[in-house]
Amino acid sequence: LFMFSHVEPYAGDPILGLMDKHKQDPRADKVNLGVGVYFDNDGKLPVLNCVQKAEAQIANPPKPRPYLPMDGLPGYRAACQNLLFGKDAQVLKDKRVATTATIGGSGALKVGADFIHAWFPQAKCYVSDPTWANHIGIFEGSGFAVGKYPYYDAATNGIKFDELIAFLNTLQAHDVVLLHPCCHNPTGVDLTQAQWDKVLEVVKAKNLLAFMDIAYQGFGEDMDADVYAIRKAVDMGLLFFVSNSFSKNLSLYGERVGGLSVVCKDEAQAKAVQGQLQFNIRRIYSSPPSHGGHVVDIVMNDEALFNEWVQEVYVMRDRIKDMRQKLRDSLEAKLPGRSFEYITKQNGMFSYTGLTPEQVARIIKDFGIYMVANGRISVAGLNASNIDYVANAMAEVLKD
Ligand code: KET
Prior knowledge:
Blueprint: H1 16-24, E1 31-32, H2 49-59, H3 74-85, H4 90-93, E2 97-103, H5 104-119, E3 125-129, H6 133-141, E4 146-150, E5 152-153, E6 158-159, H7 161-168, E7 176-179, H8 193-205, E8 209-214, H9 228-235, E9 241-245, E10 257-263, H10 267-284, H11 290-300, H12 303-334, H13 341-345, E11 350-352, H14 357-367, E12 369-370, E13 376-378, H15 387-399
Parallel strand pairs: 1-12, 3-4, 3-7, 7-8, 8-9
Antiparallel strand pairs: 2-10, 5-6, 9-10, 11-13
Helix pairs in contact: 2-11, 2-12, 3-11, 5-6, 5-10, 7-8, 8-9, 12-15, 14-15
Bound molecules: ligand KET.
């Protein structure tokens, strides 16, 4: 009778909890700018053409569903590697990268965090201030003490770069530094290439363990520019982790498709790491889901489907950029004398609006516009039908 009486209630997730609240809101003009999900101009979650074609291949004739290997399909692993490191990269020819399929980008972070905690038990983990809340959750869940490194500068809508470098210089060898190669979540403010070079120099000099989490490849500048930091780190001879997600750029959120790659010293080391990742995966969930794995494998390894996919990602990217411009123009028209340039300068799915938690509470209560309490909006939730409504509401809560 008293078995579970000590179990405490869960306050809910700051991002995923918004989906339920938006769903339950009866107002017809409600808007969902909470979770980082791309909606098209009709407010619909797209099923990409390349995905539909791959799914047609899978369905006809129907395929049996054996367990996949613990680390996923070989073509899936190659797809992750080619996208991140470049198809002809020497590091791939040298077989220095251990890569496993994972249950989304979240699963990659979890498998990577467990691995690092097992093999570097003294290491602490440092995340940007601010970061995606679940970075902290996942690393703490794997037993890490998680600290923050200086990053966003609200005064300039830029980066506290000197403080960031000074802070990294105080860390211990093997401490984990979680980095966002592009489309920083939640701020949308990314390092320039010159700044990346400097950050990676400190990572190298201090023997820190970089963990690059990329969930938005293709949504920033383009497929290659968005992985500048990853390829630069390889060029500099760093050994490091990369977690990637296909949730957003293939619009396959619920299929849970991600990957974890570890750049190692040589092929033998990569084999050992690959084995330990399999060991971890076996003990957590055994093997990855099959449907999404096959979709990724087919799309990424067929030249025509791959090219179609890249173009479809760029359509999503460009629509978001268009919405940024419209939101900025609209706010500047409504609040003369104030600059909203930051909205068009930020990259990726999110804009960090600077709205206070009180202003966010008000915009949810009075207008039914759902956004994260830290003031992050998912720009991909804006469309031609709701952008005026959102701009009006934002101007209303910002005016006093
Ligand atoms: N990393 C980052 C930086 C990220 O924004 C997300 C998801 C993930 C990893 C996880 O990806 P997945 O493949 O879904 O496991 N972010 C959005 C959704 C979420 O909170 O779960 C978001 O920030 O809204």
